Amino acid sequence: MELKLFFGAFFTFLALINPIQKVFVVFSLQENYSRPELHRIVDKASITAIWVLLLFLFLGEAILGYLFNLKIYAFQITCGVVLFYNGFVGLQKGAFLTIDKNTRIEDIVTVPIAIPMIAGPATITAVVTMPAVYGRWMTIAAVVTALLLNWVIMRNAGRIGKILVKFNMMMPLIRIIALIVAAIGLQMILSGIEQYVLQIHGSAVASLAAGAVPPIN
């Protein structure tokens, strides 16, 4: 049963992290950076992403609720909009990341590669909400395992990208993944709206019930 829960959480995070998208990103950077530099980018971005996700996993509700007074549904809707926009850009341009030749490694490691490409809106929302379903330690194990697999795939993006180019699969796959990313973003928006409507409905019912209770003399 625990193994089934682990794989359920693991595949959820793997889908949200979307390693195939990262192959396109790292492969596109080959024109501007050497292989050691690309490995450095991947390593630093992965370490940054795991710290961000673990921070939100342990302190997400406190950060959103107490520090910023944000509801989970508001965070879902906002993150969904960002994700939908990223997918839409990928569909239009056929690329998830374009950079200038003079861009330094430090300028792209944290943003946009670590955040939001690895530790993205959907993944952050998941680490905040999923411990209630899978448990904290199960969620941690799933997140770390998914990030390790993503790291391995990103490290080998050059080889994977060459195979995709050889079989003329790169551009079609980029647009398919972009469509999936946009669809995930739209689903997050709809889920956030649904949670908002349910909360408003619940508050209205509670108010009516309270008003129906006769005063105590």
From TrEMBL:
Signal peptide: none annotated. Pfam families: MarC. It comes from the Bacteria. It is found in: Cell membrane. It is a multi-pass membrane protein. The chain crosses the membrane at residues 6-27, 48-68, 74-96, 108-128, 134-153, 173-190. GO terms for cellular component: plasma membrane. Belongs to the UPF0056 (MarC) family. This is UPF0056 membrane protein.
